[in-house]
Design goal:
This protein is an alpha+beta fold and 136 residues long. The protein is built from 2 helices and 7 strands; from the N terminus they run αβββαββββ. Strands 1, 2, 3, 4, 5, 6 and 7 form a 7-stranded mixed beta sheet that branches. The protein is elongated and about 60 Å long. The chain starts with a helix and ends with a strand.
Length: 136
């Protein structure tokens, strides 16, 4: 799943992180007060064997989550506008590649905003499908 994750993060970088400071998994990050930022998370969901034999293949499903964080008590309009901007790049039918692996975005869901540690948080979840690849 490393290549799939790399394809998603590379798309984020190609879009200049959408103008947001970004917290990446397992990297030190300290948000600046009153400055919006995003947290990226990649969740492997399921690996499904397609066939059995000399060259068995799998398909993989996963979730790429983008958690937008904005200062509280400033309304949700800026966060919603940013989520719409992100949705234009990470939308149903988009195909991304890295290291020979391909990722297709099946659905994009926007969660309900909530307060989190002094921030207004708005989750965006992309359900992914990876093209069949040989099993090790």
């Amino acid at each position: 799943m490393f290549n799939e994750r790399s394809a998603l993060v590379q798309e984020w970088l190609n879009n200049s992180e959408f103008g947001l400071a970004t917290a990446y998994p397992n990297k030190k990050f300290k948000p600046k007060k009153d400055t919006p930022y995003a947290e990226l998370t990649f969740l492997g969901v399921a690996e499904t064997p397609l066939e059995i034999g000399d060259t068995p293949t799998n398909i993989n499903d996963a979730i790429f989550q983008i958690l937008l964080k904005y200062p509280v008590e400033k309304g949700d309009q800026d966060a919603i506008k940013k989520s719409d901007e992100i949705k234009q790049k990470y939308k149903r039918g988009v195909r991304l590649s890295s290291g020979g692996d391909t990722v297709d975005i099946l659905t994009v869901d926007f969660g309900t905003g909530f307060n989190s540690d002094g921030w207004f948080a708005l989750p965006i979840s992309c359900l992914l499908y990876t093209s069949p690849s040989p099993r090790d």
